[in-house]
């Protein structure tokens, strides 16, 4: 068109710019921008908005904003285009500021505006400040009467709540919808998967089938993710069979999740069969199978598969290397770990923070805390995962004071906000070193200073902390103050402490609480039997053994490996 001296108009340039956006072609887009400028389309809102859209979809946000700021006239679509661009890039502060400007200039946001905002909250960082802002915007949407008329708006709002784990609010939106699409169902199901309510996921799935709602592969992603959490082989195989019937089993994401699902259920042979049957394996396929071996206590097989992978056209990524390093840590092989580290540096992964954190973990688990510290200190831009790996390394090596000092440096000097995982490491270190008051202080501060709700890991660390130093009454008080749903699991460490300190009476009280639960933990029965044995109460110990046999409980065997030489 240009070479034939035919000039574009207000309709042709937007079409051409849209093509550039679809092809992510910045050179052609900027060339068209030059033509638009020379031909005097600066005041054409339609053309200028298309320029903004082209730059934003090509992720050149600064240029998109510059064109927007220079527009003499703007439309709602113009504002939405820039807001959407910020949301796609997870620049939510800028998106919200622009939304405020839009209102100040007298433009009424459309449903598309709010879809972008809610979707941005769903995909961006899960700051609870953003959740509060999202809830405020939800109120604005309700006042404007936009809900229940736009399915995409309802779905995006539901997705925001689901991503923040607020399934109660997400469910209110879902139940209020007059029209539900498959996306509506998969969004609410994904929310329940995220919080671990697998029973509700399958309940919703059954409702979908009864209402003849179309089932797509995303539905199966949620179902398989639920099976991974449960580790229930019978349920997992049923879901797999249904996926086969619906023709969804050949989706790449489904195949990779099926590998993880069977590995989680302890069926590595089935996982390997699926892996071997994949004709065009991608990096996720290899990583899923390697992780399956590594997490199931087969680090040698994981390492062998990695060596096979590097001989194929599939290049490992950071997640693959992190998985392999985790397998090295479980295998206790420092030599193999160093071999993987060499691969990391030879292939340009030395700046990958996930890999750096895994190297720290690997060296500490293989007994080389100095090398772990060396890797940690070499990391220039440390994120929370990097700090957590080093804090955990100190904790498992019985260096609680170093773990505490590093934690204080992270939070005070570096201003990094801790999460539940780093507090687990901190409490573990305090427990192993008998730092009771420090442990209690951090257990309290995680809630009061950072709003972190304790998990079962934190509660068991708390009980272990008190039990190790013989403060058994205090440990029992802590258990009784816990939420009922975690008490049974938290009593296990208390029984172990009772055995170590020979306190049969308190152990019996704890066991009565635990064994009254329907789960009847085999591990706790074994601990109670060992407690009776330790004080010569053979009859009572035998009764515990009979309880295990009568209920056909199976105690899982633990194992640990470390390379001594070679």
Automatic annotation (TrEMBL):
GO MF annotation, one: RNA binding
InterPro entries assigned: E_motif, PPR_At4g14850-like_plant, PPR_rpt, TPR-like_helical_dom_sf
Biological processes annotated in GO: RNA modification
Keyword Repeat: yes
Pfam families, A to Z: E_motif, PPR, PPR_2
PPR repeats: 75-109, 181-215, 282-316, 383-418, 419-454
Keywords: Repeat
PANTHER family from the UniProt entry: PENTATRICOPEPTIDE REPEAT-CONTAINING PROTEIN
Listed name of the protein: Pentatricopeptide repeat-containing protein chloroplastic-like
Annotated organism of origin: Trifolium pratense
């Amino acid at each position: 068109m240009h070479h034939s001296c035919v000039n574009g108009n207000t309709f042709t340039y937007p079409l051409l710019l849209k093509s550039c956006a679809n092809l992510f072609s910045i050179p052609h887009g900027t060339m068209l921008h030059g033509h638009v400028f020379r031909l005097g389309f600066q005041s054409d809102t339609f053309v200028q908005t298309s320029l903004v859209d082209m730059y934003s979809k090509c992720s050149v946000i600064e240029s998109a904003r510059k064109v927007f700021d220079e527009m003499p006239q703007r439309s709602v679509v113009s504002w939405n285009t820039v807001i959407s661009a910020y949301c796609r890039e997870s620049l939510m502060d800028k998106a919200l500021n622009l939304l405020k400007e839009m209102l100040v200039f007298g433009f009424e946001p459309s449903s598309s505006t709010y879809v972008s905002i809610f979707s941005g909250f769903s995909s961006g960082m899960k700051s609870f400040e953003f959740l509060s802002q999202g809830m405020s915007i939800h109120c604005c949407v309700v006042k404007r009467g936009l809900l229940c008329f736009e399915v995409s708006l309802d779905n995006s709002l539901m997705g925001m709540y689901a991503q923040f784990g607020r399934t109660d609010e997400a469910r209110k939106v879902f139940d209020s919808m007059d029209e539900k699409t498959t996306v509506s169902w998969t969004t609410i199901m994904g929310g329940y998967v995220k919080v671990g309510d697998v029973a509700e996921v399958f309940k919703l799935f059954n409702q979908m089938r009864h209402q003849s709602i179309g089932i797509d592969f995303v539905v199966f992603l949620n179902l398989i993710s639920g099976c991974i959490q449960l580790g229930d082989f019978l349920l997992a195989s049923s879901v797999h069979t249904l996926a086969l019937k619906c023709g969804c089993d050949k989706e790449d994401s489904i195949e990779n999740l099926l590998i993880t699902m069977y590995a989680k259920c302890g069926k590595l042979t089935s996982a390997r069969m699926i892996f071997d049957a994949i004709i065009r394996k991608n990096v996720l396929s290899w990583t899923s199978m390697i992780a399956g071996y590594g997490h199931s206590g087969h680090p040698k097989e994981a390492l062998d598969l990695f060596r096979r992978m590097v001989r194929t056209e599939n290049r490992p990524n950071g997640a693959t290397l992190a998985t392999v390093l985790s397998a090295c840590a479980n295998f206790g092989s420092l030599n193999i770990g160093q071999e993987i580290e060499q691969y990391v540096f030879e292939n340009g992964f030395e700046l990958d923070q996930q890999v750096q954190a895994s190297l720290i973990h690997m060296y500490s688990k293989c007994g080389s805390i100095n090398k772990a510290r060396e890797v940690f200190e070499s990391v220039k831009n440390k994120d929370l995962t990097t700090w957590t790996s080093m804090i955990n390394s100190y904790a498992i090596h019985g260096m609680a004071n170093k773990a505490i000092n590093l934690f204080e440096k992270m939070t005070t000097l570096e201003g990094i906000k801790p999460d539940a995982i780093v507090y687990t490491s901190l409490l573990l270190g305090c427990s192993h070193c008998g730092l009771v008051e420090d442990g209690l202080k951090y257990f309290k501060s995680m809630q009061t200073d950072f709003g972190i709700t304790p998990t079962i890991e934190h509660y068991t660390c708390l009980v272990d902390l008190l039990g190790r130093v013989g403060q058994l009454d205090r440990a029992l008080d802590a258990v009784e103050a816990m939420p009922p749903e975690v008490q049974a699991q938290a009593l296990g460490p208390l029984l172990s402490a009772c055995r170590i300190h020979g306190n049969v009476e308190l152990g019996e009280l704890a066991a009565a609480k635990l064994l009254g639960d329907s789960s009847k933990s085999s591990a706790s029965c074994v601990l109670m039997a060992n407690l009776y044995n330790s004080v010569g109460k053979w009859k009572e110990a035998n009764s515990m053994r009979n309880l295990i046999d009568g209920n056909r409980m199976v105690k899982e065997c633990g194992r640990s490996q470390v390379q001594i030489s070679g």
